[in-house]
Amino acid sequence: MCNIKKVLFYFVFCLPAALLPSSIIFEGNAAYFRPTSDVLRDIYGSHWLNSGLKISGKLPFSQPFLQDLYLFGGFNYLDAEGRSIGGDDKTEIRIIPLSLGLDYMYTVLDAPNPLKLYLGAGVRYFFVRVKNDVTFVKSRVTKSGLGGVVEGGALYFLDKHFFIKAFADYSFRNLGIINTPSGVSGKGVEVGGLSIGGGIGFEF
User: Fold this and answer.
1) 34 exposure class (CB count in 10 Å sphere: 0-12, 13-18, 19+)
2) In 16-67, where do the E strands start and end?
C-alpha cells in the first residue's frame, strides 16, 4: 500500500511539473460536497467540506486545439461524523482522493484581467477509512479503489498571475465500506459525489 501511495503521489504532483510546461498553475480549493449515496447522507449528513490542492501544467503542443490542454493532478480531503442507522453509535469517515487528468482551458476574455473557462476529466483514486464505535462490527474499515472525475470551472485573473476561481466536479467510485451486524461487508456504497466551490491560485 505504501508503494502504491508513493507512485500515485508522484503522478499527481510531480508529473505535471516534470513535463516542463510553458505555464504551471497552483490552486487551493474549498467546496461544498454532497455524497451521491443516500446511505452516506443518512449516516453522515448531506453537507461535507471538501478541501484540496491542485497543480496543472500546460502541455507542450503547438496545434490550435492541443495547445490549450493542461495535465492536472489533485489531492482532496473529506471527513465527516455521524450516527449509525437504527442506533446512536458514533461513526467517522475519511475520504482522500488523488486525481490525475486533462483540462481544456478556453480564454473567454483576453484582457488585462483575463477570464478563462475549463472542462476536464480524469481518474481518481480513493482512499477511504471508516471508524465505528460499535461492538458488533469491525472498529475500522479501510478500502481503496480507482474511480473517475469530471469537472468544470472559471478562472478570473486579478493580475497577470493571481486568480480566483469557481468550479464544480462530480466523482464516482463504488466500495464496500459499510458493515452489517453479522460482520459481513455490506453491498457497495458510492463514495463519490458532487462538489461546488471556489479557490485561489497562481499561474507562472
Assistant:
1) middle
2) 24-35, 48-58
**Does the model's pTM come out above 0.90?**
no
The strand pairing partners of 92, in sequence order, are: 81, 131
Residue type, position 117, single letter:
L
Question: For residue 16, which of 51, 60, 50 has the smallest C-alpha distance?
Answer: 60
Residues 74 and 52: their CA atoms lie apart, in Å, by: 7
Class of residue 92 by CB neighbours under 10 A (exposed 0-12, middle 13-18, buried 19+): middle
Quote the CA–CA distance of 75 and 154 in Å, as a whole number: 19
**Confidence (pLDDT) at 184:** 38
- Given a contact cutoff of 8 angstroms between Cβ atoms, the answer to whether 191 and 176 are in contact is no
- Rounded (to 5) percent helix, strand, coil in the chain: 15, 60, 25
C-alpha cell belonging to residue 59: 502541455
Tell me how far apart the alpha carbons of residues 97 and 123 are, in angstroms, rounded to a whole number.
10
The pLDDT assigned to 18 comes to 57
Average pLDDT, 10 consecutive residues per value, the chain (204 residues): 59 58 88 95 94 92 83 95 80 94 93 94 95 73 94 96 97 82 61 97 92
Contact call for residues 161 and 16 (beta carbons, < 8 A): no
